[in-house]
Design brief:
The complex is a heterodimer of chains A (about 450) and B (about 180).
Chain A lengths: L1 H26 L9 H16 L3 H25 L6 H21 L3 H22 L1 H4 L11 H10 L4 H15 L25 H17 L8 H18 L5 H15 L4 H11 L4 H14 L11 H8 L3 H18 L4 H16 L2 H17 L4 H8 L7 H28 L13 H16 L1
Helix pairs in contact in A: 5-8, 7-8, 8-9, 9-10, 9-11, 10-11, 10-12, 11-13, 13-15, 14-15, 15-17, 16-19, 17-19, 19-20
Chain B lengths: L1 H24 L3 H16 L4 H25 L7 H49 L47
Helix pairs in contact in B: 3-4
Classes of the chains: A mainly alpha (about 450), B mainly alpha (about 180).
Chain lengths: ~450, ~180
């Protein structure tokens, strides 16, 4: 108790002095071109230190409040600078508010829609718990030396179809971190393991989990105000770690996690990371944006279906077409796989957002990719098979047409035709980014394989 | 200005929630103490030299005062350890006063440095605005980037970090 009192008084004293320090930072800018840089950097570091201490609910409240205040601040400054009175600005803002209101109303317009929204919320919560508590679920030992990968993977698969996917991803994350504190370079952690220990079916999500671990550790070491050389060094470190530890053809699964971690926990870093990747690792960009899109589904802001829609946010967030396609694919990926056990949820989604998603190939690509990943990680997954056989129940011709065109037909092709080819050529990492045409990618791989043999 | 406002509001919001979090943590004193220490450390890292010295002086003083207060509350002043506690507080207070003297000197130095740096910043900006001095871009120059030592081990594992919400397994909780 005494130590707690000392810490509390110490914290109060530090916070009081921080006000003085910030006044000095503002009054003596290091550069007049960016006068607030030093003060912003100080705010960011302390905010990040506090953020790390938050529990689930407090973190969710923080993130929701932070995103709201950022939006309101933008509106305020746009109004002050008269930008907000431009006709386009007003119409965009109004249409965003109207669209969101419509979306919310649709979710609660009927008992059936409300029931489906409730089911989706339950799915989200289940996945949240599966990922969050994977270590206690699998009884992962606290001592890294006792980490028995073979047994833990068997335990993850013993959870059955659906939980196994999330458990394997979580396991990949924990496994990668067992190498982090050993004081020596990390190399070959997924390449130097025998198939007996690490079966082929676990590889995609083990790589995704490994990427999560690396990205989580490294992104905590930089801020948007870190020197550019330092940011570049850390990102290069991430790419090198992925390259040194991934099996050929699976790197994409690990790269993608960088986007997820950055968008989820380091929002202000998204444009900074993109700029650096564009210069030294452009091949990672597609995966990065895909991961950023996937993270939107899990953000606290969009966690409760019907309140705010990530599908409306995605068009505001994507800075260009390439990012939009990948983010759409990433969001479709998460939406599909989380709700794969209840295809009627996706059917209802199409009824509400059919117009939007039929305008972009990103949605169908993401859906196909996630089913390829799903059937690879759980061969013969009963939920995926039921999903393929699903037909819309309601007498809604438009929903039936959208389902067949955007979901059913591409899903069957992905699972029955494209997955075996990607698996044969060990190119499953490719599904972690947007491809204009997965069938064409499969054909290309087959042709390359034939010409290679001849 | 817009970024500054966002940063300040974000900080204020985070600190408000941190207070709330610490109220919850009060039933877990170990966790609450660690959280206070982590945020205090991050705050201290932002201080200049003069403020660091001020912070340490005040910190020593408050530690002594907390000890005295707890001593009185737990009747520790009247046991055999009481004399030692009083001596400790006297020593810490004396140290704090000595540091205070040093701080006055450092503060005078800091103020004159501040005036100098403000003047040079204005001069520098005037030069930049007419294209005399190139400011390094946000992305930096690839040619000046230090080469990565691929044989080096990774940085130490971050304790805590993203313990909250998210598509990430919890570390340091449950079985792990």
């Amino acid at each position: 108790m005494r130590e707690l009192a000392k810490s509390a008084v110490r914290y109060t004293w530090a916070t009081s002095l921080f006000g003085v320090q910030q006044a000095a930072n503002v009054l003596t800018p290091s550069s007049l071109r960016q006068p607030g840089r030093r003060a912003n950097a100080a705010y960011f570091s302390i905010k990040q230190a506090a953020e790390i201490q938050f529990d689930d609910i407090v973190f969710a409240a923080y993130q929701v409040g932070d995103e709201v205040q950022r939006g309101l601040t933008d509106i305020f400054f746009d109004a002050v600078t008269l930008h907000a009175f431009h006709p386009n600005y007003v119409s965009n803002l109004t249409s965003a508010v109207v669209e969101q209101s419509q979306d919310t109303l649709q979710h609660f317009s009927s008992a059936e829609n409300a029931r489906l929204a409730w089911q989706e919320l339950r799915n989200n919560y289940e996945v949240f718990n599966l990922v969050k508590h994977v270590s206690s679920l699998l009884h992962v030992p606290s001592d890294d030396a006792q980490f028995d990968l073979k047994k833990l993977i068997q335990d993850a698969y013993a959870l059955g179809a659906y939980p196994d996917l999330w458990a394997v991803e979580g396991l990949g994350h924990l496994y990668a971190l067992t190498f982090w504190n050993k004081g020596r370079p990390i190399r070959g952690i997924l390449t130097d393991v025998s198939p007996d220990v690490l079966p082929a079916k676990s590889l995609t999500m083990m790589h995704a989990g490994m990427g999560l671990g690396f990205a989580q550790q490294l992104m905590n070491t930089i801020t948007p105000y870190s020197p550019p050389q330092e940011i570049r060094r850390v990102l290069r470190e991430f790419v090198t770690l992925v390259d040194d530890n991934s099996r050929p053809g699976y790197e994409g699964a690990a790269y993608e996690s960088l986007g997820l971690v950055t968008r989820f926990w380091h929002l202000q870093m998204v444009p900074v990371v993109e700029e650096h990747l564009r210069q030294f690792a452009p091949h990672v960009l597609g995966y990065f944006w895909h991961g950023a899109g996937r993270s939107l589904y899990f953000l606290p802001l969009y966690f409760v279906p019907g309140l705010l829609s990530p599908w409306l946010a995605i068009e505001r967030e994507a800075p260009h077409e390439f990012a939009l396609l990948n983010m759409t694919a990433g969001l479709a990926w998460a939406t599909t796989i989380v709700n794969v056990r209840q295809p009627e949820l996706l059917e209802n989604f199409l009824r509400m957002r059919g117009d939007q998603v039929s305008r972009t190939p990103g949605f169908t690509n993401g859906l196909m990719s996630t089913l390829i990943m799903g059937i690879d990680i759980t061969p013969g997954d009963t939920y995926i098979m039921q999903f393929l056989d699903y037909r819309p129940k309601r007498s809604d011709a438009r929903a039936a047409e959208l389902w067949e065109r955007l979901v059913a037909q591409p899903a069957r092709e992905a699972v029955h035709r494209i997955h075996p080819i990607l698996a044969k050529h060990e190119c499953l990492g490719e599904v972690f980014q947007y491809h204009a045409s997965l069938p064409e990618l499969a054909v290309r791989l087959e042709q390359q394989g034939r010409s290679g043999r001849s | 200005m817009r970024e500054f406002t966002k940063s300040m509001t974000s900080y204020t919001w985070a600190m408000s929630l941190f207070g709330l979090q610490q109220m919850v943590n009060v039933f877990r004193p170990g966790k609450a103490t660690e959280s206070f220490n982590n945020v205090t450390k991050a705050t201290e890292d932002q201080f200049g030299e003069a403020l660091k010295a001020t912070f340490r002086a005040g910190d020593n003083l408050q530690k002594g005062l907390v000890d005295v207060t707890f001593g009185i509350l737990t009747l520790g002043m009247f046991d055999r350890g009481g004399a030692r506690t009083t001596a400790d507080v006297t020593r810490q207070t004396g140290e704090a006063l000595r540091q205070g003297g040093r701080i006055v000197n450092q503060t005078v130095g800091a103020v004159s440095q501040t005036v100098q740096s403000a003047t040079s910043a204005v001069m520098g900006a005037a030069q930049q605005s007419v294209g005399w001095a190139a400011t390094p871009s946000q992305s930096g120059d690839a040619r000046t980037e230090p080469r990565r030592d691929t044989t080096a081990p990774p940085p130490p594992r971050q304790s805590g970090g993203q313990q909250g919400w998210g598509p990430m397994p919890t570390q340091g909780q449950g079985a792990r």
